[in-house]
Design brief:
There is one protein chain. The chain is α+β, with helices and mostly antiparallel strands. It has 3 domains: 24-63; 79-240, Penicillin-binding protein 2a (Domain 2); 252-296 and 309-590, Beta-lactamase. 34% of the residues lie in helices and 26% in strands. The chain has 19 helices and 29 strands. Strands 5, 6, 7, 8, 14, 24 and 25 form a 7-stranded mixed beta sheet that branches. A 5-stranded antiparallel beta sheet has the order 16-15-29-28-27, sandwiched between helices. Strands 4, 11, 12 and 13 form a 4-stranded antiparallel beta sheet that branches. A hairpin with a 2-residue loop joins strand 1 (5-10) and strand 2 (13-18). Helix 9 (252-269) runs antiparallel to helix 19 (577-590) and helix 12 runs antiparallel to helix 17.
Length: 604
Amino acid sequence: MRPVTVRQQFKGETVGWTRSGEFENHATTGLTQWHHRRGVILMYGLLVGFACIIARLVYLQVIEHETYVAIAAKQQITSRPIKARRGGFLDRCGRPLCVSVPVKSVFVVPKKIRPDDVPSVSLLLSGLLDIDEQKLRNGILRNYDREFFWVKRRISDGEAAKVARLKLKFVNFRTEYRRAFPRGTVAPHLIGWVDVDQQGREGLERVYNSHLEGVDGWERLDCDNRRRPRLTERAEFEPAHHGNDVHLTIDAEVQRMVSEELDDTMAEWNPIAATVIVMEVESGKILALGNRPTFSPMHPETAHASHRLNRAVCACYEPGSVFKPFVMAGFLDAQLGRVDDRIFCENGLLRVRGRRLRDHHPYGWLTLAEVIEKSSNVGIAKVGLEMGPGRIFGIINVFGFGSSTASGLPGEVGGLVTPFTKWNHYTVTSVPMGQEIAVTPMQLVTAFNAIANGGVLLQPQVVARITDPDGNEVWRLSRPEVVRRVISVETARLLIDPMMRGVVERGTGTRADVGVYAKFGKTGTAQKPDPRGGYSHSRFVSSFLCGGPVADPKVTVLVLLDEPRRGSSHYGGTVAAPIAGRLVEKILRYLDAPREPAAVGHGL
């Protein structure tokens, strides 16, 4: 029988009994149900919580695993660069001319500096390192959230010691390199200079930058909670690969001679500029190259751009009479005359279609050799008229004028030669005298060297070989770079002796006749173009090409002075010839060349 429930309410509670006699208290039953529901809710809450934790773990350990590993590595591992040493420049004997030496550079960690401390830190460091305090303060504040900011690079040992004594946790050092010059500043226009990051900016530093710069290395070390590195088994290391060394054709001793002569020249004659080039006859190698004004490659920013200009390859000049042997070479090589043929020099005045050409002396009859020896304008003009424009233009191009010598020096220009279609009846007399044409000093000495070596034009060389840090050869200049034959051996010998030997021993270049070696050469005194038209009567380029010994030439030298402004003379024979003569004599002695007594000696 189904139980019957009887219910009655007493004081808000429902009580009752069943037909079976069982007493029922509904207050107790409701409480139990409430506890049950709460347990269910709690259980589901725990399940959801565990699910969230598991999801988060999956997210961290699986999805974002690499990200957090990287963050942890950044906090636990420090990486530091190992700077590669830039290769150096050595002379042809292996003597170092320019090397890189290690120095300290100081930096700060801005994020470790409290903002309130920035002014005092900036004031302290700027005082020790002699830098601008405001600039340093602004730099730190702009990089406040970073771990690196340069304070000063390549500081002295004394400055480094002062900073180290501060023992500031946010100040540290990094080893870098700077350029040093063991033999003093040698051929800066040739070698060039590097910027603060040791990248080549000018000269051979720029041309051979990829060989010189090397490859930086690195090291990774564990660090503690204060970011201090410590050695552990997890340390990794990649060594730096240092740069290659460039061995130049320059001879440090010859370069020293040139530098001393240039300094004396500037003091004596006060030109606005001067250039000297020394070339080895048989190879075309440049043994020395110097320019004035000059500059310090340690502080190139302090020099005017014109002082850093390599005038040997970047400046053009009308050569004047120093150009006459090249035109005479074409005349002789075309067999239009012989050295003892005579030309009437019109007593020093030649009229050509309304133009007057003058000599400094009223010469009458001169042999072709004497035309060069005495530097007769009238005589060489008549040679030009006999040759005609075609042959003159041809010999100009054969000797390389009008095009780069391919010396490998940056910024080299090819000079200026009037296009053949624009030549006129004046040009055939102007060019033989070294007018209406502009050449570089490198072109002049290269062409002159072709005469000295028997008629072969060689490409100038400034780099002999390249070696790696272990001394192994990477590249070598195996033989002279022949451009072409320009004149016959016989013509070359006649130009040397008697023609240009006579210049030194009897003609306009006797002041080069010093010492015991017989020399040959040619003077040049070129009027500079006047901006208003024509030529200046007060501004000159004085030059001298010289070689020796006559019997077996070893070296050729060009000395060029742009506007000598002191002294009583501006002639190449007076200003430039003595310098060239002394240099050739000193260099031949240094090279221990076989001695051939000069016909006339005036002492050295």
